[in-house]
Structures are given as C-alpha cells and as structure tokens.
Amino acid sequence: MPRSFLVKKYFSSKKPYYKESQLDSQTAFVPESFPRAELPNHNNISALTCHPSSPFYQTMDPLPAPLSPITPVSLSPPALRPLDLSSSPSSSSGEEEDDGERTSDPPSPDVAEHIFFCLRCSKSYGSLSALSHHQTSHHLQHLSPLAPPLQTTSMPPEVSARPAFHCKHCPKEYTSLGALKMHIRSHTLPCVCLTCGKAFSRPWLLRGHIRTHTGERPFACQHCNRAFADRSNLRAHLQTHSEVKKYQCGSCSRTFSRMSLLHKHCASGCCPGS
DNA sequence: CTGGGGACGGGGCCC
DNA sequence: TGGGCCCCGTCCCCA
Predict the structure, then answer these.
(1) A255 has which bridge partners?
(2) Does at least one atom of strand B sit less than 7 Å from the CB of A102?
(3) Does this model's pTM top 0.70?
(4) Which residue's C-alpha is at the least distance from the C1' of C8?
C-alpha cells in the first residue's frame, strides 16, 4: 500500500475540539532500563525521570519538583499549514473525512521539556537522544547478538546475514538494534500514565490513553456532532456515514463497515472454512 | 447476530 | 539511528 498518507499534514485550519492549553504533552518517559518493578506508583512516582507540566497532572497528582523546573520547549511542527484536502487520500465521493488532525496525537505546540535520568548510573541528560546514546553502553551489555559467540567480539551485527539481535524477554529476533529497541519497549513499557499507572510502549499511545482521563476528543466528525479521542475510531465512525461498506463477505456479498464485523459475520457461519 | 464506540498494539515511513 | 507519527487492525463491551 502506498504510504503517501504519511506526508506530514499539520492542519491548523481545523482544530475543532481542543484548546491549545490542552495540548501539552503528558508523556512520561522512563528510560528503557527502568526496571518494570519500579514503575511509578503513588509511592515512588518521583522515580519518574520527567514530569509533565500538564495542569491536569498537577491537579490530579500533585508532584514535588525533584528535578529541574519544567519549561515549555518548542517542539511543535515546523509550520502549521492549511489542510490540503486535495492531497488527502480519496475515498468514495469524498466521504472520507479530511482526517485533518494527526492521529491519536493532535498537534501539540506545547511540549514539556524532560529531564532524562539513567537509572543505572544516575547520570542525567537533557534529551532522550542523549540518554539513549548513553544507555547504549548499558544496552550492549544485555543485548545478545545471535551470531556465534566467536563472532560477537569481532564482527559487527550488521555484517551478519542472519538476525543479529534477539529479545531478552521473548524469542523474537531482529536484524537491527533499532528494531530490537523498538520491540523491547513493548516489554519495558516506558511510558507511564501518572494518573492510573498504566504503561505503554510508545508516547503517543500514552497520549491517547490520557485522553480517556481528560475526556479530550480532538477528532470530530463533520457529518454529525460526534467527536472522538482516537482518529482510528473516527475513521471507523465515518464508515457509519458511508453508504458503501468497505468489507464484503465473500459468500453472501453482504458488506460491513468494519473488518471485525465481517470477521464476526463469517465466524457466525456464513463463510464455512474461512 | 449486528452495529457501533472505546481503547489499544504494531508495522512501517518520514524527518 | 531514533523518535514521531500515520494507518490498519483487533479486542472488548454495550445496545
């Protein structure tokens, strides 16, 4: 499938349901080395390596300021441009919404600055990149190249034709350290909701989750008054406005708005063998 | 059984 | 190389 939809679209022209002040990033990054057992709770929450500046958190979960004061840092998109609807992926008769806002993560002009601590050696860094770079020295002690032992000291992983890294938490293998690190996040769940403690592998998953606390619904349907916290849910909702259902049963030709509905339909016996 | 919303995970691309 | 982000898709629950 073409990935043209990945072209950045920072649509400032339609920011329907949320205020600028609500856009603060509330991601709480915890270094990957953060032992899962030490994920913050109400007792050890100060162990977090950074603290969101969101008023919501300050209200819901007052925190001391053990680190440096958090000041907004401009990490906003390079420029907010008018939505170019003509470049949007087309669908039946333009039924598809503009999907203007970024997915589960609307543009966030105000992003909190974070202080990143390595909990292994207590060093602090001003950026996740810096911390990640530092942590490489730690990670390399734990990532286990699949190359034969005799090669691991003399041959860079990328030289190996086979997957060079395997996850220490599961049997999955990866050919690059980056891919492995990404995967490991699904085990370490470094992004922790300070409200409920739920942990996520990626910051934007956390931001989407946080909306379940705030009630923020940035993604509005242009056909009705409904709004959604998750763009995927809006997309699914838009199908309810469409006369053409995307998913068709191969046996009875009945169409459904969602794949899952088609699956359930088939599971109910319409499509033997499927 | 179907339709729909809520919440979330992961692959893959861009910067 | 890593972070950010988009889309697709799934699961669960309820009406």
Answers:
(1) A248
(2) no
(3) no
(4) A232
